[in-house]
TrEMBL record:
This is HTH psq-type domain-containing protein. Residues 9-58 form the HTH psq-type domain. One of its GO terms (molecular function) is DNA binding. It comes from the Eukaryota. SUPFAM superfamilies: Homeodomain-like (SSF46689).
Amino acid sequence: MDTSNSVTRKRKQFSIVEKIEIIDKIKAGQSRTSIIKEFAVPEGTLRGWLKDEEKLWQK
């Protein structure tokens, strides 16, 4: 298989503190689109964090 055209992305791991800070920015009114661009977070990942916010606070 030719991989010369494939794009490899390095996954960034966010700490719990970073995730909570990003959630707080959304709650403060910053758009999800701008957060996705600023922090290079996939949309699905961001949705998961928002859904699991309570669990993040318990960690």
